[in-house]
Amino acid sequence: MVKTQSGGGFGATVSTTRWNKYGTFTAKLKSGSTGPGIITAFLLSNPALGEEISFELTGKDPKKVITNYYRRIPAPPAATVRGPLQASHQANIVPHSHPHVHSRLESHEETHDLKRDSTTHDLVYKIEWNEKQIRWSVDGKVLRTVLAKDVASEGGLPENAMQLQLTIWDAGHTLETATWAGGMTEYGLDNLIEYVATVSSVQITCHDAKEGKKAWPGPEATKRLKLARAHEAKLAKMLAHGETGGLLARIKGFIENAILSLIKWACLALAIICATAYVTPTHNNDGAVKAPAPAPVPATTEVSSVVTESKRDTHSVM
Fold first, then answer.
1. Predicted confidence (pLDDT) per residue in 276-312, tens digit
2. What is the Cα–Cα distance from 148 to 155, expressed in whole angstroms?
3. Phi and psi of 149, rounded to 5°?
């Protein structure tokens, strides 16, 4: 996944087509957060509710990783905040505009040390999530475990189905997140710096054995996949037969060919005009063809003639 400059909050995200409630989720990846402001994340997300369970790697330090979970909890009407999401990772309570107006999101963020640089090594990140706990591990080492019974008074653990997501995005061009992400994002003088996160593998183990037996990625996603493949096959066939694949492309090709033809004929006409002007004779005022002017006598010829006559005169006197 590649991230080039497009403004704060933008980037690339890959999401699963199926949602899972509980399970074990593993990804082997190399972080693309090679500079300040860039975030690489492996997470479970419910965009409708704003809930998530995540690993986040920032450009601040490639040997640290953030674990976090957001849980939507009820809130009294007086405490409800109406307005846009303020993406602040400095506070535990994150205001969020949502149809469930009498609720709020709470962030539970912790930072952990890594043994290896996440931007130069493929590390294995694992999230184990069920109704009793959430456990985060890297390369087989457990970094954090949160038990449902320990946080029951704080609203408990997320318990709504989520999508698995892999993302890389620019947090350095937003004031609320720049400090958290390590500073302003740098793209170089010519905006040529790119940030790339490489994902080697993803594995999902469903918590419910019956869920795991269902076809993946599901009937709707399978249908969309078949349509996409059919469209690709059609384009390949059109290209193989030299077709341009669209009205606009045909018009463009016609215009290009017309311009090339005009240039060719213009050059040919110019060549004919030049050749005609070179071979056409000139005329006098009375219409007669002018005789060509005599070639000038070289100066050396005149001099030799004078010398010869002088020699003859000298001989006759003697």
1. 776 655 555 555 555 555 555 554 444 444 444 444 4
2. 9
3. -65, -25
